[in-house]
Amino acid sequence: MVVKEQKQRNEGLQIEIRKILRNAIDPLQSLELIDSIQRHGVAYHFEQEIDDILHRLHKINIDDDDLYAIALHFRLLRQQRYQITSDIFNRFLDDNGDFQDCLCNNVKALLSLYEDAYLGFPDEDILEKA
């Protein structure tokens, strides 16, 4: 009896999450939702919805000065094997080619950038600097 109730509850929650995924309009909100779902280990329930969102977001150019948003966008697309260049991080470099000092205060962005560094290709120097 308890197992049946738990299964029904899980199915109801999956329906709710699917609705949230389909209705998410803001790119950053969509990316954070996908990231949260993946970190909780339940992304396999929502593969089609996640693929649809990432396909849509891959086509748009995120013109944002928010390192966290750019790093999250990069990581989620790169993990799903979308072609995305690490050049999107160039806007955060100083004149010496290093990441700007002011970024040190943004812990969330730095952690996201650190995760991105593991997805870099050997010739992507900018991710090695991260």
TrEMBL record:
Which Gene3D superfamilies did the record assign? Terpene synthase, N-terminal domain
Gene Ontology biological process terms from the UniProt entry: terpenoid biosynthetic process
Please list the residue ranges annotated as the Terpene synthase N-terminal domain: 7-130
Gene Ontology MF terms in the entry = terpene synthase activity
Q: Which UniProt keywords apply?
A: Magnesium
Q: At the top level of its lineage, which domain of life is listed? A: Eukaryota
Q: Does the keyword Magnesium apply?
A: yes
User: Is Transmembrane helix set as a keyword in this record?
Assistant: no
Xref: PANTHER family = OS04G0344100 PROTEIN-RELATED, TERPENE SYNTHASE 11-RELATED
Any idea what this protein is called?
A: Terpene synthase N-terminal domain-containing protein
Organism field: Dendrobium chrysotoxum
